Every structure is written in C-alpha cells, then in structure tokens.
Amino acid sequence: MAEKINGRVAYADLLRTFATIAVIVLHLAGSQMANVAVSSHAWQVFNLYNGLMRWCVPVFVMLSGMFMLDSKHSLPLSKLFFHNCLRIVLCLMFWGAVYALVDYWLAGVFSWQGLWQAMLNSLRGNTHYHLWFCYMILGLYLVTPCLRAFVRGASRADLHYFLLLCFLFASLLPMAFQVWPNATAPLHTWYDRMQVKLVLGYVGYYVAGYYLREYTIGRITEAIIYVLGVLGAVVTVWGTRWLSLRFGFDQRLYDYFAPNVVVFAVAIVVLFRYVLGVSEERSRRQRLSHVAGIAFGIYLVHDLFIILLRDLGLTTLSFAPVASVPVLSAVVFLLSFALAWLIRHIPFLGKWLT
Fold first, then answer.
1. Is the entire prediction scored with pTM above 0.90?
2. How many CB atoms are closer than 10 A to CB 286?
3. In whole angstroms, how far apart are CA 274 and each of 14, 21, 38, 269?
4. How far apart are CA 29 and CA 36, in angstroms?
5. 45/320 Cα distance (integer angstroms)
6. How many CB atoms lie within 10 A of CB 46?
7. What is the pLDDT of residues 230-283, one digit of tens each?
8. How far is residue 135 from each of residues 129, 132, 259, 265, measured CA to CA in Å?
C-alpha cells in the first residue's frame, strides 16, 4: 500500500472526506428528530442515520492528532500560535459574524453594533452551535507541545496505559455513573476527588489518532476492533431507540465519549487505514486530496445551506426521510464544497477562513 501521494496520507484524506459527509448527514438527520414522535417511522430512520454517523467528530479529532503530534515534523511555537491557533480564532470571528448575519436576515433586522457584538460573542464562546468544534480544537492545539513531548518519549506500553486511562475516566466511568447512579455513588465520590483531569476531554482521541497512524496493529487485534465497532454501532442505534421509547428522546448513547461511540470511531479509523485506503488509483487519490484539503471549510459553511433549505421549506420531513436525508446531504455537501472552494481561492485570506 502506497501511503502517500503528493506528500499527503491517502487513507487520511479518504477518511477526512467521509467524515465531512458524515457530519452533514448527522446534522440533517438530527435536525427534525425532536419534531416527530419517537414511535414514528420517521424517527426510527433519523435515529439510524444519526446513530451510524456518531463517529465523525471523534474521527476528526483523531485525524488532527495524527498530524499535529507527528514528531517527524517540527512544530515550533511560532507556527503553532501564529498559524494554527490564529487561523482558528479568525475562523471563529469571521464565521460567527457570518452566521449572525444569517440570523439577522431571517429575523429581518440588522445593525452594525449587533454584528460587532456577534464577533465579540465568538471570542467569548457564544456563537453558532457547530462552531463549538473550533474552541475544542483550539484547546487541543494549546496543549499540543506538551503532548508531542509525551508521545516522543513514550513507549508503546506507555501509550497503552495512557489511552486506557482516557477510556476509563472519560468514557466508561461517566457512562456507568449515568446508568447506575445509586450503585456507583461511592465510586463517583472517588472519581470527583481524584481530579484526574489529564486524561479527560478529547485528549484521548487526539493521542489515539497519533497511535493508530504511528503503530501497526496485528490481524487478531484488528478483527477484535471491528467486532467491537459493529457492536458499538448496534448499541448506539438500538440502544437509543430502546431508551427513547422508555424515557422519551434519550441521547446518552449519542455522546461522543460514550463507550459505544469510542469503539465505533476507533474501528472506523482502523477500517480506513487497513482496508478502504489501499486503492492505488492515482487520479482518485488526487480528487480526494482536493476535497480533504478544504474539509474544514466545508464544515464551517455547511450549516448555511441547511438553514437556507429550511428557510425555503425544504427539510428532511419534506419527503420520506429514508431518501430525504441522503439526498439533502448530497445537495448540502456539493454546495458547501463549491462555496468553500471559492473562499479558499481568495488571495491571501482564503486559507485563513477555510
């Protein structure tokens, strides 16, 4: 398997492209779930699409970790702060203002003071819902020098131990506390008082991305990961249905740190690295690299078109959800790609805004 083409990692480009599509499917599938009965056929279809796409955000974080933590490439603090971090801050301010303009347009009101306030709100952490990802990535960037030093000196066993702690404290125990609050109360007290914050948040996914690129896993381990991944997908979809029928729309198994989502996301990365990323067709890889290169831009702009379609009266409930979700996802993806591509090619500014 030729891993790179034009300096890019082929399976990572493929994975980034599909993760971008998955985000759009997830947002469209989830946009109307609260507006239909849990027992309805439409809700079941939305749950299927939504549940099968929960891997996308964890995978984006793992993709970032693959490259940001790669010790074979230097990352001086000047580049980290004045390129990586600055780009995220500029995107937050610019797109926070753009989505504020859209809100003003829908409400039929506008003021320059309101627009300026929207930009300030982005810096304060209050902006359009899907831009939360930028804040999280910015946080990971800030600790990247420390994590690079850690992975550079860590053995494979050290990384296993670290990732085990991440899974235990950020995923498994929090889910146990939700499912069995009374039985786990004493353990929850220990959990709170130990304050093991180093392995919480998205840092586990970030380091896992580095690990899955840096190290090769054996066939048996790969097979086990696939089995766990399938089980994770089943639990996400069926478990959400079962819980929602009992308690009303229940999203705890949708959480990006739920154990079922964790194993599902890891299995997706492994699948793309060892199975789906083996194509040697150069032209196909080049097309994927073009899409992957503006995937972040597509993520930033895609909700503009979801809002536009909704304003035109076109939602995933406009026709049969089994067809509306993929059809509208394709429309939004193509429009988002076109807009992100155009913005990307604005001299000087384009690369900072997508």
1. yes
2. 14
3. 12, 21, 38, 9
4. 12
5. 9
6. 26
7. 999 999 999 999 999 999 999 999 999 999 999 999 999 999 999 876 555 555
8. 11, 5, 23, 21
